[in-house]
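Explain this one:

_____
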Amino acid sequence: MIDPAKLPAPPVAARHAHSYERHGRTVSDDYAWLKDAGYPDISDETILAYLREENAYFEAAMAPVRPLVDMLFAEMKGRMKEDDASVPRKDGDWDYWWAFETGAQYRRWLRRPTGSAEEAHIILDEVKEAEGHDYFRLGALAISPDGSLAAYAVDTSGAERFTLKIRDLATGEDIETISTVVNGAVVWSAGSDAVAYTEVNDNWRTFRARLHKLGSDPEGDPTLYEETQDIGFNVHLGRTQDRQWIVVGTNDHETSEIRLVPAADPLAEPLLISPRREKRQYSVDSAHGRLWILTNDDHINFRLASASPQTPEQWETVIAGSDHVYLRGISSFARHIVIEERVDGLDQIRLRTYAGDEHRVPFPEASYTAGLGTNPEFDTPDYRIGYASMVTPDTIYDYDADTRQLTVRKVREVPSGYDAGLYATERLMVPARDGKSIPVSVVYRKGFEKNGRGPVFLYAYGAYGFAYPPGFSADRLSLLDRGWACAIAHIRGGDDLGYGWYLDGKAEKRWNTFHDFSDAAKGLIAASFASPGRIAIQGGSAGGELMGVVANTDPDLWGAVVADVPFVDVLNTMQDESLPLTPGEWPEWGNPITDPAAFDLIRSYSPYDNVSAQAYPPMLITGGLNDPRVTYWEPAKWAARLRATKIDANPLLLKINMGAGHGGKSGRYEAITEKAEAYAFMIEALG
């Protein structure tokens, strides 16, 4: 175990008295100085020196367990198919796929003429593009309808401001650079002569969609739509399945508004489907001259409606909303509307003909996760579907709707070996303190003894309506094969049991999320999977906020806490309108600037504001210097306050990636290195 007594003295951040008042309440923030006044330019040497000290302490603390980290890395790498590739998928005259070469951190994107055996054509080689950069991420890749050009966007800092370029696929040469502040999807016009893209402003908000005519000066690119009504809304782009329309949407977490632009004439007057209405969401697809609209306007679990483009606000119900069936997404193909839904918390895929006949895709297990895969064509002979469970590796199927047969196209290979028969999975329904039942998915190696000794690894997210799926993880085998059970708590704040499950964990009901997680842990203890102190927990971003709250409220439950890019300075961040995401986050968390009740609620759980003089479990905290979502000073301030306040001798480590953003370091081997560090930390902490 990491022994702080054998380490050099940990860094001690200076405390500079700072306080402010809001709604008659006084808030002290002695570590406010860790936010660089010049942000997003981070150049204050005092701050950078402190972060480097924390990183050096992290390396010193992890040095004794590096052999375990290396062992875990080797195990994880051994389960990774190094020359992995996706299943080719037809789009027009070409089959498209990606592939890794052995030893490569990044993918190659490839194609060949459909039905041809000729050598693959390289569209984009991420390995080559990443040369000379510590960080690389491909944000968008779109092929022109005539197949001659690629529009692609890359980020080489982690700041999520992407540079958009056009590449001639015949020569492999870039012919234009359009913008250096792009974020989001890129959509081609039907004529292959223009691309639509969205740009971020200085506060990292996607505030407008523009159209670039190839060969023109990008400075003069016309605006398709600019969000001027609400600084909390973000603009996004898409394309209808029939490729007739470019979708230009704007939304926050509760409200949406959509315009359609003809793909054949993208500078035509946009078609507004329906003006925004507070807390009403809708999405739109197109097929056979009709618009197909998914909306929550009259039921919490959404309904499917249809409208004519000539009268886009006249929505006629096709499938009514249901307390039992949660409609999550639609894609309108030539023969079917494919509906992704969840029934009693279980993923389903429903196919419905335009005449109204329908059926669900049959899946082989009682508990799993499933969803539509890559289906670019409108008139497709089959539907590609992704599937996995906690014991079944990721599987790609093609589904024939006529024969109702699933054909396996690929099963994730585990080169070092995997036998699903060695593992078992359960789905518990754990009682919450308010009487609700919380689903908890558990997997373990057969022979795991339910004697209360654990150890157990428990994970959750619990925000934004994201349901953390009970899928497969090859990396997780490193814990299972060491005698651990691994569990996912499907807590409120996600939409696991319907949209109402999400609403019951947001804003004024936020405490339900935190209570659910602790109650899920207590349910695992009651089921004899573990005992207090024998549960290691991890969460990232909003899930990192969760880690911070439960570390404050229930420290005795946890044997280790790993908080990745944690959103822990909630009260201060939600009052800083200059930060990229703050206005758009108010519907999710509440607005403490204008609402005293929201201020008090956020203050009651904000992890940074509730650190107390108590014993905390061993903690590993990570962040990214260039992270625009959870800024680096949130984990830095939290770690500083914890170290100055807690009364235990357990290790507290802070690692700030100095050249990365919200997702940590780029590259598939860097990702498993960081996972190996987290697992090693947990294994050592629980002995």
In short: Residues 18 and 30 are 5 Å apart (CA to CA). The mean pLDDT is 95. The first strand starts at residue 19 and ends at 22.
